Amino acid sequence: MINIKKLQLFYITKNKYSTLDGEEFYHCIKVLRKKEKDKIFFTDGCGNLFSSIIKKINKNSCELDNTEKIKSIQKKGKIEVAVSIIKSQNRLEWMVEKLSEIGICEISFILSENCEKKNLKYNRLKKKTISALKQCNSLFLTQIKELVTLEDYLKKTSKIKNKFFGDINSNNIFNKPTNKEKSILLIGPEGDFSKKEKDLIFKNKFKNISLGSSILRTETAAVVGGFMLRNL
Question: How far is CA 169 from CA 173, 213, 226, in A?
Fold first, then answer.
């Protein structure tokens, strides 16, 4: 049986399994010095592990052959962290990388009243999720969702039962979900959610929970809360 944790794993977008290009090509051929006829392993980030043979090395890509799916697993206990967008791109990328490393399935970004930033550099954030996938030899790529307003986001979560939000004024703790459905953790901006926003969050049946006695930065709260929820 193949031990995934011991493999040198590459990432290829789903249904594009015949070619390795971009940064993955550079890492494979230029850094690791793989040659034609060498065997490599890759994932599509959807729970699938593949093996393939390098058939031909071109200038900016290599062609793969004899591709075989050797493992497929389903993710259990899916977790989404929804966080108010923060100003610092470096801190934002750090947060995405760490949430990906601990196994968070989806990261959503929210526009709330106290947000200082209004846009995202999606390509840079996706690179962080791919880097984390390879670092942890995970078969699942964390998904980055589009930036939406808090109100629109809450509408999308109306049918989800396991919903929490970090609240410095709460003494409640996470309770382990009694079902295997998706769970959501909502994290506010540096200046916290406004009273109007909190009323709306409570109206949408989110449970306020404590992330500890310290006052945390938004990105730290997201990682701490995500880790706590992931390990229930």
Answer: 12, 9, 19
Number of domains forming the structure of the chain: 2
My answer on whether 103 and 140 are in the same domain is yes
CA distance 174 to 227: 11
Residue 196, domain extent: 79-230
Answer yes or no: do 103 and 194 share one domain.
yes
Q: Phi, psi (5° rounding) for residue 3?
A: -90, 105
The verdict on 59 and 87 lying in the same domain is no
What is the model's pTM? 0.91
pLDDT tens, position by position, 81-127: 999 999 899 999 999 999 999 999 999 999 998 887 778 899 999 99
∠66-38-54 over CA atoms, to 5°?
Answer: 50
Query: What does the alpha-carbon distance between residue 7 and residue 154 come to, in Å, rounded to a whole number?
Result: 40
